[in-house]
Every structure is written in structure tokens, then in C-alpha cells.
Design goal:
This is Spore cortex biosynthesis protein YabQ. The chain crosses the membrane at residues 6-25, 37-60, 66-91, 103-120. Keywords: Membrane, Transmembrane, Transmembrane helix. This protein has 152 residues and is an all-alpha fold. The chain folds into two domains: 1-84; 89-141. It is 87% helix and 0% strand. It is built from four helices and no strands. The protein is rod-shaped. The N and C termini lie far apart (101 Å).
């Protein structure tokens, strides 16, 4: 009986953890506004991950035996998580995602001003001088000595 209780609690915790991972995926999907193909890939990845996690939990808990109480434990753990913790977790995860997005945008602006612009400004200056010099050279090479443009 003690081993069955351990397995039940382990699988209930596994169900709750998988529900939390699903909330993380859901917040990420909504934050990044993923399209159909990326959502399908994300769903596939989630279910592959869930399968591996449940398989490992089953191996640890009861040597991989699948019985009715396994499904009962997984669904009860996920159900309790969704009933009592999911709302708070999604709020915290959403705020965290927005904060990380703001920090990444700030880092992008800093990198742009400190690294990219100092390289691009001299490069643009040299490029513009080379183009204008090339245009003058082209005009000098194509205009005849008498100053009249060639007839076509």
C-alpha cells in the first residue's frame, strides 16, 4: 500500500508539473503570437516532452506498469493545478514574459547604439564617398573632350 501511495503522489505531482509546463507554453505562444505551423510544432514538442516525463515517472514509481490509478493520478494532479494555481501562474508568467520582452528590446537598442551604429556610420560615409567618386569618374570618362554628351 505504501508503494502505491508513493506512485500515486509521484504521478499526481507529474500531472501538476505537466500542467504548469503547458501554462508556460500557452503564455509563450500567446506572447509570441505564433502562427498555425509554429503552434503545431509547439504542441508536438509539448506532447513528446509529456510522454517522456510520464514514462520516466512510471518507471520510477511502479516499474512502468500502467493501471487505472495512473491516469487518475495524472488527471487529478493536473486538475488540482488548473483549479487552484493556473490563474496565478499565468498572471505571473505573463508579467514575466512582458518584462523579459522589455529588457530584450532595451538590450537591442543599447547594442544598436553602442555596437552597430558606430560601425555603420563610417561604413556609410565611405560608401557614399565611393559612390559619388565613382559617379564623377564615370562622368569624366564618358563625356567627350568637346563637352557635348555623346549622341545615341
Amino acid at each position: 500500500m505504501n508503494e502505491q501511495l508513493y506512485t500515486f503522489l509521484l504521478l499526481a505531482a507529474t500531472g501538476a508539473v505537466l500542467a504548469f509546463v503547458f501554462d508556460c507554453y500557452r503564455v509563450t505562444r500567446n506572447t509570441l503570437k505564433l502562427r498555425r505551423f509554429a503552434t503545431a510544432l509547439g504542441d508536438l514538442f509539448y506532447w513528446l516532452l509529456a510522454t517522456v516525463v510520464v514514462f520516466l515517472a512510471l518507471l520510477k514509481g511502479n516499474w512502468g506498469e500502467i493501471r487505472f490509478f495512473v491516469f487518475l493520478a495524472l488527471f487529478s494532479g493536473a486538475g488540482l493545478y488548473f483549479r487552484f494555481l493556473s490563474v496565478y501562474a499565468t498572471l505571473i508568467l505573463g508579467k514575466t514574459a512582458r518584462t523579459i520582452g522589455k529588457i530584450l528590446r532595451l538590450v537591442g537598442v543599447v547594442i544598436s547604439y553602442l555596437l552597430i551604429r558606430p560601425i555603420l556610420l563610417p561604413t556609410r560615409w565611405v560608401y557614399r564617398r565611393a559612390i559619388s567618386g565613382g559617379t564623377r569618374l564615370f562622368r569624366w570618362a564618358t563625356v567627350p573632350k568637346d563637352g557635348k554628351p555623346p549622341e545615341v
